[in-house]
Amino acid sequence: MSEQSDLLADLPQVAAEHFQVPDLPRLRSTQPSTHAPRFLLLYGSLRQRSFSRLVVEESARLLQAMGADVKIFNPSGLPLPDDAPDTHPKVVELRELTNWSEGMVWCSPERHGAMTGIMKAQIDWIPLNSGAVRPTQGKTLAVMQVSGGSQSFNAVNQMRVLGRWMRMITIPNQSSVAKAFLEFDEHDRMKPSSYHDRVVDVLEELVKFTLLTRDVAPYLVDRYSERKESAEALMKRVNQAAI
Questions:
Q1: Beta-carbon neighbour count of residue 163 at 10 Å?
Q2: What predicted TM-score, i.e. pTM, was given to this entire model?
Q3: Fewest 10 Å CB contacts: which of 94, 209, 227, 235?
Q4: Is the pLDDT of residue 239 over 80?
């Protein structure tokens, strides 16, 4: 009997046929992707001069300078969740961009101590499951927020919870821009500052994590409980078909 079998013998709760020892070689892609990393950027305000949109636009420029392929979703016209069918053109657009992306940036204003409903509505329209595909699982995520007053982290903290719920690899760094109305010039470009430096830091980290994980994301998010559940579901279907 092997050493692993000996150890599993002391774990009667575990289904041994679905238990796996993490495999280092599988975390090293043998055929790394060569295309530019693909990022979808979402913002949480429809104001004419939306500072979350301006941060996203600045982020898009920075990501492109880092060699990324970037698309920004305009939430104008997106219906409230469950107030329209998922065939609505804006819902289809958002979901197609989500499937296209390998990583995402979410930037929301903080309103009433929380992310905006506009930001949450976009996330709510992205399904956890779409057929056999989980659109966000294993993709990277960076979170940012803008505030009209002093610096706060309520919105980014909430978005981190959502990123975990969407099974995304939410990077450690984040950005919170206080008094955002002071941080942009008359051409709507972000001024040099420690806030801008932090945005660069966040995006640099996002690109690195994406390049590191995108080719092995399916293995990173492969779970014992789901392998076990899938096997049990398959057995149930086979047994039903045999009756």
A1: 23
A2: 0.88
A3: 235
A4: no
